[in-house]
Amino acid sequence: MIERTPDAAGPKANPQSVIDGLRKIVGDRHVVTDPAELQVWGCDWTKIFAVDPLAAVFPGTTSEVSAVVKFCHENRIKIVPSGGRTGLAGGAVAGKKEIVISLNRMTNIDPVDRTGLTIRCEAGATTQAVQEAAAAAGLFFGLDLAAKGSCHIGGNISTNAGGLKFIRYGGMREQVLGLEVVLPDGTVLDMNSSLRKNNTGYDIKQLFIGAEGTLGIVTRATLRLTAKPRNVQLACIGVKSFDNILDILTRCNMAGATITAFEFFTDVAHGIVLKHAAGARTPFAARTPFYVILELEDAPGGGSVMEPLLEKFFEDETCLDAVIAQNSTQFKEFWGLRENITESLAAHGHVRKNDISLPVDKLAPFIKELEAEVAKAPKDIEVVLFGHIGDGNLHINYVGPKGGDKDAFQQAARQVEEKIFAILPKYKGSVSAEHGIGLLKKKDLKFSRSIDEIAFMKKIRAIIDPDGIMNPGKIF
Ligand code: FAD
Ligand code: 2HG
Ligand code: ZN
Fold first, then answer.
1. Beta sheet of 55-57, edge-to-edge order
2. Residues 6 or more apart whose Cβ sits within 8 Å of residue 207
3. Rounded to whole angstroms, how far apart are CA atoms 115 and 206?
4. Any idea of the CA torsion for 155, 122, 125, 226, to the nearest 10 degrees?
5. What is the CATH number assigned to the segment(s) 15-105?
């Protein structure tokens, strides 16, 4: 145990002794205390919460993570696990003199197992690095998101990330076979290795997926791979109404299409991307109110699935225009129109983000109610809709003019957001489809989870982390 200063606002131990103790474990070079650098390491993409960690630590191995956590546990020092810091819910924010434990140095990826179709990596590997390792072995990793170059596998697991290919491959939970986790007392749990089947009691690794770092630190994972998708076709489709989007989805389903992505965005989102994303251009001569990005796999025996579908949509005026990507440059361009929305919105003005989830068959009535609420919103709040609509995940972004008062905007947007969240229980929807609760949506958990469920989750947390040192203040 180290020296204590009982009145200190942050950890109960003397800050300098804490830093010295951490340096002994990971080496001087791997503990950051510079205030400017800490502003970076203690923050995620939200950038609306106060940031004030005591230090950031960069362990290089699972044993070092375990030793750091054990040290924090013995001294009741609070920890914020940190990945690529692209989170959109404030989950990786350290604002109360916590120790940030970053997995940035733990990026090893083992050789792909082509027979078992698995890949094992440390939690600090980026999503893109895992995608590339799978591709180099002639295989495919199913999680994809615009932040792939920065976000970590550990962050993806801890947020149970959804992303652009959820409709075909599921979210991060569906990719995880095995998990190594450091518990809040420093114990290392190595769960399930790469087994596909294992009925020997509770599947405890599932608890850590989507736990937002509140139950332990993910240090390593074994992930599922698949064969590469074949003959992938991509179309950008312009439509008049939201109902047309759902009609297209239904008809793709009924045609037996293997949809690999079904995304949408409004013309407002499109305009913002065209304004801010370098090189972005619209594929159509005339703009339309909504757009669908439809990606599907053609049948192995040849013969296009995409073309006859689009022909029918043109014939009965379900779509106003549609373009099929003809080469890899166009593929990238079309995907860019969707993937660049988040960055373009950030360049456009102040933003407040929602990532709600609804049963797909309830999207149409929900959108009608949402439009009625939006019509009552203050005129300087622009409401931008896009998202993974094929799996019922709608992104609502409230955007305020650049240069305006940031706090006043957040307050005004919050009022609209609350009204929209309040519609969700009627449709059995969720306030978070994929980004998580973090600090941002703590107050809103009640819209999606019952009092009993919340109490049960708190009980689980108290069993695993009785001293409450692991990412305190997040989710609840
Ligand atoms: P961080 O932001 O560092 O952390 C996220 C949470 O996980 C925090 O609570 C943190 O404490 C915890 N954590 C991180 N690493 C660990 C670990 N090793 N062990 C335990 N806990 C840990 N999300 C989607 O789901 N779908 C999208 O399509 C999508 N697109 C995005 C596009 C852009 C441009 C951006 C900026 C973000 C996007 N996101 C998306 C959000 C974000 O990328 C994901 O939530 C991602 O999974 C976060 O990973 P990260 O490594 O950046 O985690
Ligand atoms: C996406 O789908 C991400 O692009 C980010 O989940 C969504 O910016 C957002 O609101
Ligand atoms: Zn998303």
1. 31-32, 55-57, 99-102, 79-82
2. 215, 460, 464
3. 25
4. -90
5. 3.30.43.10
In this predicted structure, what is the pLDDT of residue 363? Answer: 98
By alpha-carbon position, which residue is closest to atom 2 of ligand 2?
387
Q: What are phi and psi of 385, to 5 degrees?
A: -110, 140
Written as six digits, the tokens of 164 are 């652009």
Q: Answer for the pair 109, 133: CB distance below 8 angstroms, yes or no.
A: yes
Q: What are the extents of the domains in the chain?
A: 15-105, 118-227, 232-339, 342-448
The ligand that comes nearest to the alpha carbon of residue 181 is 1
The pLDDT value recorded for residue 4 is: 46
The response to whether residue 397 sits with its C-beta less than 6 Å from ligand 2 reads: yes
What's the gap in Å between 342 CA and the centre of ligand 2?
A: 6
pLDDT, residue 355, reads 98
Residue 352, classed as helix, strand or coil, is strand
Instruction: Kindly tell me the sign of the dihedral angle through the C-alpha atoms of 207, 208, 209, 210.
Output: positive
- pLDDT attached to residue 298: 85
Residue with CA at minimum distance from ligand 1 atom 25: 161
- Using 70 as the pLDDT threshold, list the residues of the chain that sit under it: 1-12, 300, 302
Residue 396 C-alpha to ligand 2 middle, in angstroms? 9
Q: Do domains 232-339 and 342-448 have the same CATH topology?
A: yes
What residues flank ligand 1, with Cβ below 6 Å?
Answer: 44-45, 80-88, 91-92, 103, 123, 145-147, 151-152, 154-156, 158-159, 161-164, 212-213, 217-218, 342-343, 434-435, 438, 471, 474
Which of the ligands is closest to the CA of residue 151? 1
In the numeric block, the tokens 């980004």 are attached to 435
Check if 353 has its Cβ closer than 6 Å to any atom of ligand 2.
yes
pLDDT for 12: 61
Dihedral angle sign, alpha carbons of residues 265, 271, 273, 279: positive
CATH code: domain 118-227 is: 3.30.465.10
Per CATH, which fold does 232-339 belong to? Alpha-Beta Plaits (3.30.70)
CA–CA gap between residue 292 and residue 322 (Å, rounded): 9
Given ligand 1 and candidates 86, 148, 273, which is best to mutate, with the most ligand atoms within 8 Å of its CB? 86
What is the Cα–Cα distance from 152 to 130, expressed in whole angstroms? 10
Sheet containing 321-324: order of strands: 321-324, 232-239, 290-297, 258-266, 382-388, 393-401, 349-357
With a 6 A CB cut-off, is 146 part of the ligand 2 pocket? yes
Determine which helix (DSSP H) or strand (DSSP E) holds 168, and give its type and residue range: helix 166-169
Q: What is the pLDDT of residues 275-329, one digit of tens each?
A: 999 999 999 999 999 999 999 998 767 678 999 999 999 999 999 999 999 999 9
